Amino acid sequence: GEDVEQSLFLSVREGDSSVINCTYTDSSSTYLYWYKQEPGAGLQLLTYIFSNMDMKQDQRLTVLLNKKDKHLSLRIADTQTGDSAIYLCAETISGSARQLNFGSGTQLTVLP
Amino acid sequence: SAVISQKPSRDICQRGTSLTIQCQVDSQVTMMFWYRQQPGQSLTLIATANQGSEATYESGFVIDKFPISRPNLTFSTLTVSNMSPEDSSIYLCSVRQSGNQPQHFGDGTRLSIL
Q1: How far is A76 from chain B (nearest CA, A)?
Q2: Helical (H) or strand (E) element with B35
Q3: pLDDT of residue A98
Q4: Is pLDDT at B79 greater than 80 in this prediction?
Q5: pLDDT at residue B6, rounded to an integer
Q6: B45: which chain A residues are within 8 Å (Cβ-Cβ)?
Q7: What is the mean pLDDT of residues A26-45?
Q8: Across chain A, where does the E strand assignment appear?
């Protein structure tokens, strides 16, 4: 299928905010997801947003959705060294199984 | 959310052999999926595991290479057959408890073929 696009790398200083961006492809996606993948581990679901929402906040995480531009972002406030990981954006694909189409992931590095 | 256990967590295998990966969930789930993550790449869906019937494979994946079983609503296996070095990847099991719930993933199986 078409590509969900993300920047490959992002570096921030500890305590700063991180913003990870994603451009998705399917305008009829019902849910959009952010997963975190640490070295040697599987995928951890961080948060998700329903397509009829523009914003969702969950503690240090804020998700913004721009349906017109098919743009999704994840903001991490007060970024900590433990936030260093790969962050993957995923869209649901239209169809009965609601399969996921993943981006390539953004490697977030938090510098002390 | 469901607790997903995958076995083995990692393995090193010889070319031409086969390996079966198990995925056990602590509660009944509607949907189970198998993904592959090749080195440095994102996840690609291999197939949807259907309870009591043949799995639904994505383009580029075939049953002879990746046979899948799902005997009940909490368990599935993926076999990687006749392995070659190109099969070296992380294989991940994923579940969705019902239609509108998000997908959760196991910790994956890191497979290396010599």
Answers
A1: 21
A2: strand B31-37
A3: 64
A4: yes
A5: 96
A6: 99-100
A7: 87
A8: 5-6, 9-13, 18-23, 31-37, 43-50, 55-58, 61-66, 71-76, 85-92, 100-102, 106-111
